[in-house]
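WARN no homologs supplied; continuing
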Amino acid sequence: MAFKRRPRGAVVKKSAKLKKKNFDPSKWYSLIEAARATGVTRQVIADLVRRRRFRTLVSAGKMFVLRSAVENFKPLPKPKIAVTKKK
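OK structure emitted
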């Protein structure tokens, strides 16, 4: 039999090269800038990021949010309150 023993563990590709992402600062907001643009707090933006409503980029330990996603973001409409008449 001509079987070769395969080493244990994850397969590591040695020829795979990591592409360097281009960071265009005009396309990205920091969390604080996104909060100012939308008129909400930084915590709201962080919560939306956690819910994956915005595309993010982490550079030098700082998180950035895609500017077009922030500008196109429309929150859900407020529910209408039913008015009842008193008899």
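Residues 7 and 31 are 45 Å apart (CA to CA).
OK
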